């Protein structure tokens, strides 16, 4: 046996294998740095791929927002109206009807709400309740010549597109609550009697503290006297005469 330079007692045929095993291995800190570098390189690669995909417009076939036409912008605005889960790629029949009303596609003469509903049923796919943007344009093409009679097809399509381009859904005002007959009767202060009647004036407005507590009035008349103030009028009238 021989003692190698690494402090091992071994035979000559084992000396080189021991030397190979005794090579210096990277410490824990160096291994962590190497792992961090690999992860960083992978992250950079993903970012570059995503940037290329977005620039090519390959994200599920969607069009980048800065390349949307005015007509498609209007379509997406109406498509997501009233539905927080909508993506803007498909439009239901309710929002289609609202678009036709808000954008004056429905004029009550050439195009009616019935025409709009019929066209929607024609262009949508069977067993589907929504239409895509391409189907939306097909529906407008069918309504164009009805809405703009006397014009050629291309001009009619351009005119109907102008009615819609760049517009957004019209948000109506606050809806008034319709009271039931029972609630209306219970809130009608003109029909109150007794102490409840004293709490409101003739217009139905609450009198506040004056309607709940007795307040002394230095008028010289008994509270509730119907002819209060008539004496002063009579005296002043006699003096004037």
From TrEMBL:
One of its GO terms (biological process) is positive regulation of protein polymerization. One of its GO terms (molecular function) is tubulin binding. Keywords: Cytoplasm. GO terms for cellular component: cytoplasm; microtubule. It comes from the Eukaryota. SUPFAM superfamilies: EF-hand. It is found in: Cytoplasm. Its main location: cytoplasm. Belongs to the TPPP family. PANTHER family: P25 ALPHA-RELATED, TUBULIN POLYMERIZATION-PROMOTING PROTEIN. This is Tubulin polymerization-promoting protein. It comes from Scyliorhinus torazame (Cloudy catshark). The lineage of its organism: Eukaryota, Metazoa, Chordata, Craniata, Vertebrata.
């Amino acid at each position: 046996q021989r003692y190698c330079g690494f402090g091992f007692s071994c035979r000559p045929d084992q000396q080189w294998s021991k030397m190979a095993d005794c090579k210096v291995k990277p410490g824990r800190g160096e291994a962590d740095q190497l792992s961090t570098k690999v992860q960083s390189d992978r992250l950079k690669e993903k970012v570059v791929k995503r940037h290329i995909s977005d620039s090519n417009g390959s994200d599920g076939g969607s069009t980048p927002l800065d390349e949307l036409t005015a007509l498609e912008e209007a379509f997406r605005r109406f498509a997501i109206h009233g539905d927080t889960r909508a993506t803007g790629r498909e439009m239901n029949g309710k929002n289609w009807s609202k678009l036709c009303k808000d954008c004056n596609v429905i004029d009550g003469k050439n195009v009616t709400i019935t025409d709009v509903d019929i066209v929607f049923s024609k262009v949508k796919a069977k067993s589907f309740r929504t239409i895509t943007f391409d189907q939306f344009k097909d529906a407008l093409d069918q309504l164009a010549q009805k809405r703009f009679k006397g014009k050629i097809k291309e001009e009619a399509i351009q005119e109907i597109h102008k009615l819609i381009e760049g517009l957004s859904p019209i948000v109506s005002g606050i809806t008034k609550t319709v009271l039931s007959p029972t609630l209306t009767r219970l809130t009608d202060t003109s029909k109150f009697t007794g102490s409840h009647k004293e709490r409101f004036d003739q217009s139905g407005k609450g009198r506040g503290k004056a309607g709940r507590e007795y307040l002394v009035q230095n008028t010289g008349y008994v509270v509730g006297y119907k002819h209060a103030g008539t004496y002063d009028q009579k005296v002043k009238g006699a003096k004037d005469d």
